[in-house]
Amino acid sequence: AKDSRCGVRVYRPEDDHDTARRLALMAGLRVAVDAGTLTVVYQPKVDPTTGRVLGAEALVRWQHDGRPVPPDEFIPLAEQARLIEPLTRHVLDTALADCATWRGLGHELSVAVNLSPDMLTDAALTGRVEQALHRHGLPAAALTLEITENALMADPTNARRTLDALHGLGVKLSIDDFGTGHSSLGRLAHLPIHEVKIDKSFVRHIVTDRSRRAVTDAALQLAHALDLTVVAEGVEEQDELDYLRRHGCHAIQGYLISKPIPPVEFLTWLTTTRAGG
Ligand code: C2E
Ligand code: CA
Ligand code: CA
Ligand code: CA
């Protein structure tokens, strides 16, 4: 093994193993993206006061060699391998097709799709989104795009241009993982956003940890002042839901309501749940 003097990286046998796994995953992912075999699951967003279903977030799934690979592992690989653009197009198209089905059956839902930071500087994005909406006969307001705070920081000028164009179409924009990034509340106020999503790491401790609850409280106050919708993700406990409802949170998402589920199951859930509306 080399040593770490003079800035030379320490060699660890597991590095080769990690690299081999990453390369194998990248190759497999390329095949899956090309073949369109990635699937999408849906997790409902529900009004905590009325129980009404407001929409659903689309989350991509990938089975590789018969095993699910977590998105937190393969999304970064897709970003590095320049596969994120076709992957996102596939998820967007699938999500809009499913949303059109729900609406055709009388469920006035919207669907949310996650955008990787790189996508925000892709000049073709807005046109693609517009075409996809048109293809599925959906109004722009049926689509929410979730972006992280950090996506706005890397290339603010280009990101801003894309946000303005998407906003101009009528697509709703949501700040994902709110509280984990570095943007100030003040900066968000100047962006054409519709919604903030409080990260599940804050929601998890809402009832027990005052400092983490402070982030949630600040987000709720900011959102009310700016007329933004607040969504809390990762709601697992009834007392979390109760706190969020009492403090004016507009929508909740989490295992307490439903795990992310495949489209057929989601439709069944919609028609059988008492929250369905
Ligand atoms: P995210 O956008 O913050 O999505 C929320 C994650 O929290 C999802 O994990 C969801 O399954 C999980 N979750 C939902 N409710 C609960 C709960 O009550 N408790 C806990 N512990 N977790 C909950 P998932 O599906 O594994 O996705 C992880 C991340 O991968 C997403 O975080 C998002 O950043 C990324 N991702 C997923 N699908 C896509 C996609 O289509 N495109 C892009 N660019 N990124 C995606
Ligand atoms: Ca998200
Ligand atoms: Ca999140
Ligand atoms: Ca995330």
From TrEMBL:
Signal peptide extent: none
Keyword Hydrolase carried by entry: no
Superkingdom per UniProt: Bacteria
UniProt keywords, alphabetically: Membrane, Transmembrane, Transmembrane helix
Keyword Membrane tagged: yes
Domain EAL: 22-274
Protein name: Bifunctional diguanylate cyclase/phosphodiesterase
Species in which this protein is naturally found: Actinoplanes sichuanensis
